[in-house]
Amino acid sequence: MAEENKKSGGISRRSFLKGLGGGVAGAATLSPTGLLSEETTKAILGPQAEMLSGSQKIQLKINGKTSSVTVEPRTTLLSALRNQLELTGSKEVCDRGQCGACTVNIDGKTQLSCMTLAVDARGKKITTVEGLAQGDELTAVQQAFVEKDALMCGFCTPGFVMSATALLKQNPSPNMDEIKKGVSGNLCRCGTYPKVFEAIDAAAKKMRKGG
Amino acid sequence: MAAWKPLDEMNILSSRYPRIDGPLKVSGKAKYTHDLKPEGLLYGLILHSPHPAAKIVGIDASKVEQHPGVKAVLTDLHPTGTCRYVGDTIAAVAVTSPEIAHDVLDLFKVDYEILPFSADLDAAMKEGAARVFADKDNISEPRIDGEGEIESAFGPDDIIVEATYRTQVQTHACLEVHGSLAMWKGDDLYLWDSTQAVHGVRESVARYLELPMDKVHVICHHMGGGFGSKLQAGNYSAIAARLAKLADAPVKLMLTREQDFIAAGNRPDSIQKIKAAVNREGKLSAFQVTTYATAGIASRAGVRIPIVYEDIPAWRHEHYDVYTNAGAARAFRAPGCPQGAFAMEQIMDELAEKVGMDPLEFRLKNDSNSTRQKEWRIGAERIGWQRRRKQPGSDAGQIKRGVGLAAGIWWPGGRGTQAQMTIYPDGAVEVRCGTQDIGTGSRTLVAAVAAEELGLQVKDITSLVGESDFPKSGSSGGSTTSPSVAPAIKNTAEKAKARLAELAAEQLGALAVDVQFADGKAMANGKSLNWKALCGLLGTDPITVHGEWVEGLSSAGVAGCQFAEVAVDTDTGRIQVEKLVAVADCGLVLNRLTAESQVNGAVIQGISYALLENRLMDPVTGSQINADFENYKILGALEVPEIEVIFFDEAERGVIGIGEPPKVPTAGAVANAVYNAIGVRIREIPMTPDRVLMALAKA
Predict the structure, then answer these.
(1) Which of A89, A99, A197 shows the shortest C-beta gap to B28?
(2) What are B197-215's pLDDT values in tens digits?
(3) Contact (CB, 8 A) for B395 and B389
(4) What is the per-residue DSSP string for B513-563?
(5) Which domain holds residue B569?
(6) What range does the domain containing A44 cover?
(7) Among the three residues A87, A112, A131, which one is the final residue of a domain in this structure?
(8) Structure ipTM over 0.95, yes or no
(9) Distance between CA atoms of residues B533 and B526, nearest Å
(10) In Å, how far are A56, A126, A201 from A116, measured between CA atoms?
(11) Do A28 and A88 share a structural domain?
(12) What is the pLDDT of residue A41?
């Protein structure tokens, strides 16, 4: 799998990222009206930087499955998930890291997929909200969200579920302050917070009992 | 007249049960308009005016049309050719990928003749301010309401308070932006729309595109927040339809986050100048108020004041709509009411203090609503009203605490809704209703009412909502959904039950009227028939019945009240609401679990309105400078207080709406608590730390 990720469209991962990874493409994403010129790119990354343009086929390992997506350097992981893989559980709300609705897990860390370039996610283990349940068998966190009504319109819910899941992995017995902090990066406009806190508390108790 | 069965005979309604679409929403499977991606989908985008006031001299789209990713372009969208706010629609495109959409917008060359503008209420009211509409003043003719002779009403022995209150523009900030996906199949238009009104959108789009209504099919299965801003059809729906026709492909046009803030609705602000009097008996005797408010380029920025305590012998309200170069207001959870209540509840406290009465005692004396009379006492007991500071601001130290109160109110009730139920020979039950579930749980409510009536479980019912091809129901607004939908579903289920009762009666050797439905069985004469066996008697023909809203199961008029406890840091100026008790007036509660969520949500939006939210217009550019979630602050997890929701059950009133009434009092209750804590009255929201510190410094 690692080998597969290194090669994609005949371009080595290193040169592809060197040309347009991280900073440069990030800047381009933040300024969608003006892609950086080759000159600027080289000024930032050094003269050996290689400019690539257009779309590239890359592979992403998502929810235990390897999928191909065709992305531009500026394509975010969120856009790749939603617009190419139909993994639309991660929501596009602010598209700039302000709301938490696109929260995913990358190599064990909670990340915002709108702030992650698709190319930067290559070779990493990505889990989205669709990857939590085993078939129709919801996780304890998901079950608790349903039972406690920790959702209204539901648009922020996948993000909250991802943050709550990460919190309980790190801290199986959070107190109320820790629960609130654990989801403080997620915004909800319907005002579901009290029931979210209740659901996380209930899920923690159930998981500690091995439920 | 129709009636609900007694509470103690109910199995489902009035209890707590989870919503049926919960599993879809927690697993990411629920598909919202924003999530849909049919084969060959194109992405639509609107080019909006960067100027608050400008004439469109010309639009050159030639470079846009040459771009290989562009499949359709529209440049004839502006109705008058004069843009009046940043965000006004100029042109639209359909492109092959979301990544190139913004590149393409840069290829438009638009010539504008830039005009002077008035960005906000203060600017627009100034002498010589730029006119928003050339042919009329910014300040419109007044609308005058009132009763009695106000001029002579302020007596020499009265206690009089005069004060000016201000509220800000609040934006809806729905997490799912407004938008629509349009797909043509022959002459039929299918629109997946993020809407609170599938039938309303069908009607508007059909009229706009001059299509027969039966050719327009509007679908909204899941919707990411509306709060009033999605009650009406947006131009994006019709634009998406036109782009899709031109490109001969489905087009999804979602507004950008910025466009959602600037062009998709808001709650108008207000300036409220009040003079109020209390007579020697402690009763409100005269109330005079002049209000100014802006709905941007729209009118109807009205403020409901006096509110709640309206039993005043003489009152007069003079209201002026003020035009500004800003996006049009739209209905927002209890339109006009939180603004009015913020001022009204503080004036009530100011009067009480001046007349030497306890604020609660003063409310009890002036509140003519018999239900709320009981609710005040319940709330006061729960918050511990006796703990309020007798001397406002008397806590020692940096952190000062206080308690305040305010009343909730609302009016609309149920109205025409139709539904259809099909019962299949294998026992399956399907209910169709053209309402929509905007996060309130109406999909679950449809199943629950049907199940209660048929003696089944919620899971036994397939509840189909959110399509304009289903029987007509109104928009999800005005807190009308539950009082409209629940009676219609009950009526429909009763009709289906009557048909089944005839079949059962034959088998059980009883009269149809004696057949009871409960626990998945039809029963009579001490004998029973289980549901599957009963439905099996249908042979090969399902039963399909239609029902509708009937009187007697719902009512209008909602009360309620709230009590807030706050802690104010007098060094930083930061207010933390620590506890909020909401006594919710609810008639017959259909689902206690989801009803609690509704009240929590209203309270949280109310605190957010009181402390944080504020649309800020740049006087130089005329654009909103905080059109994103970083700078337009909404209440987050760390700021949410302990909320205690108490339902004041009066099942005999039937179903009443609960979405809006608890939003009305919150800002007023918090403001009164802040006064009780610091002894200084803050007459403007949001009560941000700078305003708190300024108020403390002046005191």
Answers:
(1) A89
(2) 999 999 999 999 999 999 9
(3) yes
(4) GG-EEETTEEEETTEEEEHHHHHHTTTT--EEEEEE--TTSB---B--EEE
(5) 266-411+557-698
(6) 2-131
(7) A131
(8) yes
(9) 17
(10) 17, 11, 30
(11) yes
(12) 65
Pairing of β A56-62 and β A125-127: parallel
**Residue bearing tokens 């007509």:** B472
| Among B527, B548, B569, residue at a domain's last position | B548
Nearest of A208, A113, A203 to residue A161 by alpha carbon: A203
B61 in reach of chain A (CB within 8 A)? no
Is the whole-model pTM more than 0.90?
A: yes
Q: Are residues B371 and B506 in the same domain?
A: no
Chain A positions touching B663 (Cβ under 8 A) are none
Closest CA to B582 of B609, B551, B604: B604
Q: Are residues A161 and A75 in the same domain?
A: no
Tell whether B603 lies on the interface with A, counting CB pairs under 8 A.
yes
Q: What is the pLDDT of residues B360-398, one digit of tens each?
A: 999 999 999 999 999 999 999 999 999 999 999 999 999
- Clarify whether residues A126 and A148 are in a common domain: no
Q: Are residues B200 and B322 in the same domain?
A: no
Of A86, A146, A153, the CB nearest to B438: A153
pLDDT single digits (tens) B555-569:
999 999 999 999 999
pLDDT tens for each residue of B311-335: 999 999 999 999 999 999 999 999 9
Residues of chain A with pLDDT under 50: 1-34
Q: For chain B, what is the domain count? A: 3
Nearest CA in chain B to A55: B99
Q: Specify whether A148 is located in the same domain as A183.
A: yes
Would you say residue B261 has pLDDT above 80? yes
Using DSSP, state whether B326 is helix, strand or coil.
Answer: coil
Q: How far is the alpha carbon of A203 from chain B, nearest alpha carbon, in Å? A: 14
Quick: pLDDT tens for B463-478.
Answer: 999 999 999 999 999 9
Which chain A residue shows the shortest CA-CA distance from B96?
A83
Q: Are residues B597 and B693 in the same domain?
A: yes
CA dist B129 and B123 (Å) reads 7
A62 with A154, same domain: the answer is no
Q: Are residues B366 and B396 in the same domain?
A: yes
d(CA B377, CA B360): 9
B374 & B445 share domain: no
Chain-wide mean pLDDT for chain B?
97
